[in-house]
Amino acid sequence: MKKAARWMAALLPVIVVLAALPQAQAINISQDDVKKIAIAGTAVAAVEKMKAKAKPPAVPKTPQVDIPGASPEKPAANKKEAKKAASEKADAAKQAADEAFGQVEAMAKAGDIQAQYILGIAYYTGRQVEPDDKAAVEWWRRASISGHPDASAYVGLAYAEGFGNRPKSPAEAERRYLRAEQDGSALASVLLGIDGYKTNMPADKAVAVKRFRTAAQQGNPQAKDFLQKIGQKGTDAKLDFGENLDWKKEAEKTPLTELYTQAGTNAFWGRLVAQDYAASVRWWQLAASQDYAAAQALLGTAYYTGRGVEQDEKKAVALLKTAAAQNEPLAQYMLGKAYLAGNVVQKNKELALKLFRAAGAAGIADAQQQADRLEKEG
């Protein structure tokens, strides 16, 4: 019973961390909202014009902590050995990526909507497969039918730009965007916001800003960039958002490993798909096998707590050490708990403090609290 309680105590803060990950939020805008926003928008624009241009806030850098057993690879004795090691590492990485993608393909064919969406992104961007817009739209269409919001938005984009054997149709694109936005697609909110801002009408701009804010809260990078520019230049400035955006290049910025990891988090919380801890572990394993630190941290946490997989603290610590060595905050936090309790590793209060401080600096509140408590204890 004590051990079970310990596992649950370890899991609760992790749930808080996972809850902080971006979630889909539907946006509802009535005619009254438009009127209110339009009136407020004029005043906001006047104030924004008076503001000095502000630099974007600096992203906190996670401090590096030296971890026993997780030291960097030893340098090769000579160039020949270095070249051989690099070649072997590249081959192993390719094999891991191929095997993971093969599993995603199988899942997509079996009807997994997250795998279908990811397969669409792969064909769209030409990663792991030859680029094929027609295949991309077909996989997005399947995922859209099953309720994937961003897949619906991408189908709308196909109609907006006329690719993937879809006729160019702004009306059909807007219809798809609106449906996707109601289902919680940040991408749809951005695409609708771009179209609205282009009219250069105060009311449309105000609604567009609201859409950008909603998308930014969900973690959309384009929306964050647009809001920064609006903050610098004010809503009176004519900013033609999206004019030079290449959506294919934008999609390429997100690695497949990140998409696998997010799919696992969705399964953990029951977003888009039924809640399934075992499924979340399977997704994280696909990304972790490719040395993706965020997935290694989540997978390590799953093994540490026994959520979705048979508990294995040794395997958990090995994964957490690997991820923490790459400065992954969740891994540093969980590893700090292991060193504080002496689970698998030798108890080391000083190292636990350093790990908590590093994770706290990256924004994990409980890690900061743990560090403060340890310092008070001395």
TrEMBL record:
Q: Identify one Pfam family in the record.
A: Sel1
**Where does the record place Basic and acidic residues bias?**
76-91
Does the record carry Signal as a key word? Answer: yes
Locate the region Disordered.
51-91
Output the superkingdom of the source species.
Answer: Bacteria
Keywords for the protein's UniProt record, in alphabetical order? Signal
Q: Per the UniProt entry, what species is this protein from, by scientific name?
A: Pelosinus fermentans B4
Q: Can you say what this protein is called?
A: Sel1 domain protein repeat-containing protein
